[in-house]
Design goal:
This protein is of the alpha+beta class. It is built from nine helices and four strands. Helix content is about 45%, strand content about 15%. The chain has a four-stranded antiparallel β-sheet with strand order 1-2-4-3, with helices on both faces. The longest helix is centred in the N-terminal third of the chain and has 27 residues. The termini are far apart. Bound molecules: flavin mononucleotide. Flavin mononucleotide binds next to helix 5 and strand 3.
């Protein structure tokens, strides 16, 4: 009898929770399991391009804050969030950036409304007591140099990818770049810190006249398999 009542209660509780979620989704106007519209998929992936030329349109600081508030919610291992971001906007800050860019990246970066330096903080694990408080995750890293480097690089790179998608979701275009002198950027922007540069990404509103023809991509069977 007791068992029957518990099963009954669980069934009722389950039904109520499902009802609550359905109602919540109805109020929000979407469900987490919805597939995005074709327009959204085009904006994020299918029509989005890496840009080389920029329209003279400002990217306001409030939009950069919004961009960060989106990307920070995407997952990292143990929520370690090692990426650090320097949004280079002012002419003075751009002048500090320019000498460390490869020749092909210099002019287009100077004309972009913003260039973000995505870096990784190698002392990210110091923040784990706050970011992952339910266990002593800091102790997984202390003294393990290789694990620190691997984790910082993997997760900051992911966060850089999240930045690109968040920027596109907010209507911005991106121009990611690895053509720069990392030691120069590190000395100029991260001296006396535990942060090092990962990659750069121009942000703004792209001028479509500056993009190359789309390069081919692998077919599923060339790059993936289902086991
Ligand atoms: C991490 C990364 C580094 C890149 N480095 C450069 C770069 O230094 N200079 C450049 O012109 N493009 C660079 N690109 C742009 C790529 O060449 C471009 O994203 C790729 O060819 C796909 O182009 P599409 O997005 O227009 O299809 C980089 C892209 C990524 C993601």
């Amino acid at each position: 009898m007791g068992f029957f009542r518990i099963r009954c209660d669980n069934a009722w509780a389950g039904a109520l929770v499902r009802l609550w979620f359905a109602r919540k989704n109805e109020i929000k106007g979407y469900s987490m399991s919805d597939v995005l519209s074709d327009a959204a998929l085009a904006q994020l992936f299918l029509d989005a391009r890496s840009h080389n030329a920029w329209l003279p349109k400002d990217v306001p600081d409030t939009l950069l804050t919004r961009l960060f508030d989106l990307l920070k919610m995407a997952p990292t291992s143990a929520n370690c969030s090692p990426a650090r971001f320097v949004f280079v906007k002012s002419p003075e800050a751009k002048a500090r950036l320019k000498p460390h860019l490869s020749e092909g990246n210099a002019e287009k970066t100077m004309s972009a409304p913003c260039c973000v330096i995505i870096g990784q903080d190698l002392a990210f694990y110091e923040h784990l007591p706050k970011l992952f408080p339910h266990t002593d995750s800091k102790s997984w890293f202390v003294g393990n140099e290789q694990k620190i480097r691997d984790t910082a690089f993997r997760n900051a790179t992911l966060q850089g990818g999240y930045l690109i998608l968040a920027a596109r979701a907010l209507g911005l275009d991106c121009g990611p770049m690895s053509g720069f002198d990392p030691s120069g950027i590190n000395a100029e922007f991260f001296s006396d810190t535990t942060v090092e540069a990962n990659f750069l990404c121009n942000l703004g509103y792209g001028d479509a006249s500056g993009i190359f023809e789309r390069s081919p991509r692998f077919a599923f069977e060339d790059a993936a398999r289902i086991l």
